[in-house]
Recover the amino acids of this structure.
């Protein structure tokens, strides 16, 4: 809390100061260039375009799951660890990229980084389809993951740029759906590719989709970072007026100093802010459990229920349906609950009003895990699917509640705060699938998944209550939190 690293460089612009005629900022509260004053149609167009960038990369993270057996045989992988690593190493890169992309977007804008990173991801993902050795595949997958991590780090901050706290719930719902729905739809297509074509088309097809997203971004994506917009305004006015003294509220710093401050910010927030640390811990657990489920899904349906790879891939629809149900519940409940609590609090809103959705989601995800655990191989194939559906609906509710709470609490540094959470979350997404075979060999699917459910109770049922009671006090003690 007393760290001397200066975090004020990214402070959002305020109204012009009368004692500084050279200060370039918003001309008035209704300045049309301010993203929060954009027409709603423009905001939604930008939000949906950003969600496409967030959607395309996670497809690659799990689309390979149904084809992992064929890929392992083709590239001479000799252990389950290596086979699962071919999927998980992509997620490992998610733990590294956000450290740079999140804060860099606060310095240089959202659009440029989204487009460049997507191009980087597309090139290396295409290379995965041409890999001739397992070493090449691991290296190309990791490099593709670096580029693919950028939208996940930047998206939350971009949402906070455009939407006020009262409007943010639905927009965050659309944004949250991408990282959860992408890994679900990928394996469905991957199952058919694994059965009727070669694993290489898993990478070639996702690269083609990424090119389409890149083109859509060039057409519809609009810069929404306030600091970047004002810097461009300042540069334009310097040329028009020939006044070199014009400036924005950002401090004059060298490039190296800016990078040091920006890249230190996620680490500093993670290590000094209990809110971010606790949310990151639970987010990581849910993310890891979800990817563990993605990795083991094909084996369940092909071994216990004797389905072909293409039919087995269709079971991922239960997770997709659960994602839509979770999003629908959020769109109906989160903003309504938020506004109800705000009215009861004399019109004053606090980030803690997001906690009811987190608690409901935690209960649902735990019920889904127990249901899923004890129905595998013991009941009709529809029962594990229902358990996965309930778990996913609860998970998207939790992720929605946590991400919106973080954005509300750390508005100025939303991208850096979410990047800090993304590091631990991605490490869990990388590690959980690797220990899954050993856990299930020792405990079986029933008790193995039940252990995950018991941990979810310990974390997910207590955290919302804790932050409901102590959240305001923690934010009040922080010099980085909003207000």
């Amino acid at each position: 809390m007393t760290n001397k690293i200066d975090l004020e460089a990214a402070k959002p612009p305020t109204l012009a100061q009368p004692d500084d005629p050279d200060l370039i900022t918003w001309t008035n509260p209704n300045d049309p260039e301010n993203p929060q004053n954009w027409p709603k149609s423009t905001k939604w167009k930008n939000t949906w375009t950003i969600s496409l960038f967030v959607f395309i990369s996670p497809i690659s993270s799990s689309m390979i799951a149904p084809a992992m057996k064929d890929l392992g045989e083709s590239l001479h992988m000799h252990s389950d660890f290596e086979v699962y690593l071919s999927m998980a190493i992509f997620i490992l890169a998610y733990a590294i990229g956000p450290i740079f992309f999140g804060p860099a977007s606060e310095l240089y804008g959202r659009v440029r980084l989204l487009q460049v990173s997507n191009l980087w991801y597309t090139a290396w993902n295409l290379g995965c389809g041409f890999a001739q050795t397992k070493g090449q595949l691991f290296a190309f997958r990791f490099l593709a993951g670096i580029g693919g991590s950028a939208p996940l780090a930047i998206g939350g901050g971009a949402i906070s740029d455009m939407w006020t706290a009262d409007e943010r719930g639905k927009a965050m719902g659309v944004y949250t759906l991408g990282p959860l729905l992408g890994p679900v739809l990928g394996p469905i297509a991957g199952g058919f590719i694994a059965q009727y074509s070669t694993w290489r088309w898993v990478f070639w097809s996702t690269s083609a989709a990424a090119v389409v997203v890149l083109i859509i971004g060039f057409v519809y994506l609009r810069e929404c970072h306030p600091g970047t917009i004002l810097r461009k305004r300042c540069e334009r006015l310097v040329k028009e007026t020939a006044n070199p003294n014009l400036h924005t509220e950002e401090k004059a710093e060298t490039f190296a100093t800016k990078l040091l401050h920006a890249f230190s910010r996620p680490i500093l927030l993670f290590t000094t802010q209990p809110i971010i640390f606790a949310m990151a811990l639970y987010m990581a657990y849910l993310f890891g459990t979800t990817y563990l489920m993605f990795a083991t899904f094909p084996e369940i349906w092909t071994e216990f229920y004797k389905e072909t790879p293409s039919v087995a891939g269709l079971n991922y629809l239960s997770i997709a349906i659960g994602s839509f149900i979770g999003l629908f519940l959020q769109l109906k409940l989160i903003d309504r609950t938020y506004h109800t609590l705000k009215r009861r609090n004399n019109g004053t809103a606090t980030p803690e009003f997001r906690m009811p959705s987190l608690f409901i989601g935690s209960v649902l995800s735990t019920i889904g895990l127990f249901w899923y655990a004890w129905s595998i191989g013991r009941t009709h194939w529809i029962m594990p699917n229902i358990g996965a559906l309930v778990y996913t609906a609860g998970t998207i509710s939790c992720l929605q509640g946590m991400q919106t709470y973080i954005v509300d609490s750390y508005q100025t540094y939303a991208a850096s705060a979410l990047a800090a959470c993304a590091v631990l979350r991605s490490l869990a997404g990388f590690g959980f699938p690797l220990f899954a075979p050993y856990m299930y060999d020792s405990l079986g699917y029933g008790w193995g998944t039940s252990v995950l459910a018991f941990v979810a109770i310990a974390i997910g049922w207590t955290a919302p209550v804790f932050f409901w009671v102590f959240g305001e006090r923690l934010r009040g003690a922080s010099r980085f939190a909003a207000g």
Remarks:
- The chain has one domain: 39-223+253-476.
